[in-house]
Design goal:
- The protein is mainly alpha-helical.
- The protein contains six helices and no strands.
- Helix 1 packs antiparallel against helix 3.
């Protein structure tokens, strides 16, 4: 029951945060000067509005919940191990800094890949949006230009 309550609370909080973020982002986009829309493709803007916010929602709802649950489990486990053998616990904790350095490096690597994927997805969305929005021009039966 508590797992359900935790998941429900994080989902509701995540939805609220992302809803506010999308609203603020949309407001900021509509407040931009016309030159901004000349420089930025519509598909890129739409992708940022949808996919980036969805990624953030996943982070807020799932990842934070998992982090908190894992942290509580870790603290409890270390306490139990400390009671059983404090010397072995100290040896085990001596390895933690090495693991932390590896985790930070891996996190930076994944962050770089993730940013590249989001950028490429934004570009693909821009191309798709421009293609679909131009279909009346490309596929005009009066002009016999329909490309299949």
């Amino acid at each position: 029951i508590m797992t359900f309550v935790r998941a429900a609370l994080f989902t509701v909080c995540g939805e609220r945060v992302v809803s506010k973020l999308r609203h603020q982002l949309f407001s900021r986009i509509t407040e931009q000067e016309i030159g901004f829309f000349d420089e930025q493709r519509t598909g890129v803007i739409l992708n940022r509005l949808t996919d980036d916010c969805s990624t953030l929602q996943s982070t807020v709802t799932t990842n934070i919940s998992i982090f908190l649950r894992t942290s509580v489990t870790l603290v409890g486990s270390v306490a139990i191990i400390f009671v059983i053998s404090w010397r072995l616990t100290l040896v085990m904790l001596a390895v933690v800094p090495l693991l932390a350095v590896g985790a930070v490096r891996y996190g930076k690597f994944v962050k770089g890949i993730s940013k590249e994927v989001q950028d490429r997805l934004a570009e693909a969305t821009a191309v798709a949006e421009e293609t679909i929005s131009s279909m009346r021009t490309v596929c005009n039966p009066r002009l016999f230009l329909c490309i299949h």
